[in-house]
Amino acid sequence: MAGIRLPPEDIDISQARALLTADLISDDDRSIAADSWSIKSDYGSTLDDDQRHADASEALAAARFCAASDYSSDKEEPDAETITSMLGYQSYWDATYADELTNFREHGDAGEVWFGADVMEMVASWTKGLCVDISQRHLQNHHNDDDSESISQEDKDLAGWSVLDVGTGNGMLLHELAKQGFSDLTGIDYSEGAINLARSLANRDGFISIKLLVDDVLETKLEKKFELVMDKGTLDAIGLHQDGPIKRIMYWESMSRLVAPGGLLVITSCNNTKEELVQEVENFNQRKIGEVEEEEEEEGKGGLFWYLDHIRSYPTFMFGGSVGSRVATVAFCVR
């Protein structure tokens, strides 16, 4: 899940707890991470269900509704940017994946699936549909161009899409994408324990061609650009660091370099609505345009994002007279 990095002096679990605001403290932060909106993993868990749902409800009330800027209240609400959590720190994820790797070796358990298996499968299937539609339009444009060269096989199927999953965690999303027909698959996570678990699961389940690397998405060493970049919960965790606003800017800078021109970025979030993600992209684009106006554009600086589509079939709920979804999946294209 994690794709973020601490400053050189890493913070331990006890120090991270001191960063929690009163509204976000729970008895079991791990259950919030694994099951933010009471969506239980189909791959099993050692957590108590009653505690899981209690923690999820607390997270929903503290992190989601208090952060909504469209609602007025007589009470003084905490600034969304000040809400921090252990989930924003590498030491938390290192400890979590050390436990999950031990659990896998002893019991064969794959660990938690962020947002649940149903959401993961929906994201993978929906993303496949987007990529197929784009490939078909690309083929049609070539057919309509009398001067075009012959179409390569890579343009005709999903095997031609290079895919990167940032903050891959146990790598289960990559497994699902492989089942959908993608074959050029890479996963990165800044937690070595996560990558060790992901490799063990990939080998066990026969996905030996998946490339898995220890890498921090905010300070990535990857030089390759990818046609498809997936983020399932990583931006959420980045926002829970005490320097979340700064790290989110770093995130978008990194994404603009990792996604190839014409490629897709698909973000699944439980802490951001579709509208909030679109607004964040617009803010990033405005900053980039301002930078280009002030200085000549340098090669490799990355492109701008534009909204393409979002999943409309998630269950919805009513709050404050507005209808929303507990999970949002939004696709952006880089130009």
UniProtKB/TrEMBL annotation:
GO terms for cellular component: cytoplasm. Its main location: cytoplasm. One of its GO terms (molecular function) is protein-lysine N-methyltransferase activity. It is found in: Cytoplasm. Gene3D superfamilies: Vaccinia Virus protein VP39. It holds the Pfam family Methyltransf_31. Its EC number is 2.1.1.-. Residues 267-298 form a coiled coil. It comes from the Eukaryota. One of its GO terms (biological process) is methylation. InterPro entries: Efm4/METTL10, Methyltranfer_dom, SAM-dependent_MTases_sf. The keyword Cytoplasm applies. Residues 160-286 form the Methyltransferase domain. The keyword Translocase does not apply. Belongs to the class I-like SAM-binding methyltransferase superfamily. EFM4 family. S-adenosyl-L-methionine-dependent protein-lysine N-methyltransferase that methylates elongation factor 1-alpha. This is Protein-lysine N-methyltransferase LSAT_V11C200079410. It comes from Lactuca sativa. The lineage of its organism: Eukaryota, Viridiplantae, Streptophyta, Embryophyta, Tracheophyta.
